[in-house]
Fold each of these.
Amino acid sequence: DQQVKQNSPSLSVQEGRISILNCDYTNSMFDYFLWYKKYPAEGPTFLISISSIKDKNEDGRFTVFLNKSAKHLSLHIVPSQPGDSAVYFCAARSTGTASKLTFGTGTRLQVTL
Amino acid sequence: KAGVTQTPRYLIKTRGQQVTLSCSPISGHRSVSWYQQTPGQGLQFLFEYFSETQRNKGNFPGRFSGRQFSNSRSEMNVSTLELGDSALYLCASSLQGFGGANVLTFGAGSRLTVL
């Protein structure tokens, strides 16, 4: 049972445009959501997070939106840069489960020139 | 500050063998967790250790086990390897856990190929 879903395996965006990566979840107990970015041959690196009590969190070019009623979150990257080309994983955590993150299957973002 | 170090980076085993992977967390981090990454499955949680105790466990068979030492270094072991165990095994460390984002810092992983 995939509790965190990223339905788009890949996304291609032109440099300078907005990239929007989507994630859906089914578990109402999730209270924290995170995005990780992964380059080939490297481990995932933390990008941005959001608590379930908020609906938006911004960090430079990256903004995460959370819609609890729809159980949906999205990551916006504006403007997109070639260095953003990577696999992006959405992850969620339930209260009290500390380091146990439930990950989506990832979306490969390609930023073209 | 040194990152999370995993060894070996690559290894090849045959079915039925066993394997031990090692993880050295960031200095001061007491929590170590392990994830398996396979194509199409994303990252799946194996287990988490905190102060030498297993604190959380994922849905993997008993062939997968782990431990943590007093210096927070951790090892995971897979016995009686199967072809489906071929994957990238990622270790992550964090300060302690509960509350807040508890950001995990991942190592580069150990890529296991089972023939």
Amino acid sequence: AQKVTQAQTEISVVEKEDVTLDCVYETRDTTYYLFWYKQPPSGELVFLIRRNSFDEQNEISGRYSWNFQKSTSSFNFTITASQVVDSAVYFCALHYNNNDMRFGAGTRLTVKP
Amino acid sequence: EAQVTQNPRYLITVTGKKLTVTCSQNMNHEYMSWYRQDPGLGLRQIYYSMNVEVTDKGDVPEGYKVSRKEKRNFPLILESPSPNQTSLYFCASSFSWGYNSYNEQFFGPGTRLTVL
């Protein structure tokens, strides 16, 4: 079965701390895409990154970095030196079977000043 | 401005009263999709459309209908809403979709629906 698990329901950190959001996925497909989206308190969904199943290179974008490991079926997201503006719900998602999309339940991150 | 719009943004209705949530995109995207977001469940796909007159069920299609008569519009229809359809609904679009021609999905602002 296709599944995305975000085991951390809520995380709270103090500003400037590093924080890692975990994402574990299950799929039988050999070709698939993985995503992270951010949902700030205003409610919209903001695309952060996509990664295809053949590209295991880690990616860094400013304070954000992503670690994709096929061996453990994980696609974890790290925010370095967190800021209050990073407070949001973060969703990991799996695009599989060419057309289908499955989201995790989300992790609510609160960054306190 | 390139965007996906949804109307209404908020709706309170009663059980059994048919309603339509509109979704429109101005980016000439082929692919459109509807999701519902519920606490602890993330987003679940209701229906999607690869192009005009082509629609397919997602994970949770029961109780919903869609149509794609024009490229820009993809309305979500609840023929007889029930309280378990109380949720936050998102429409999304993409230039194309599928492994060979993948593009990012753009999401609308969401419609919060309450069915009493």
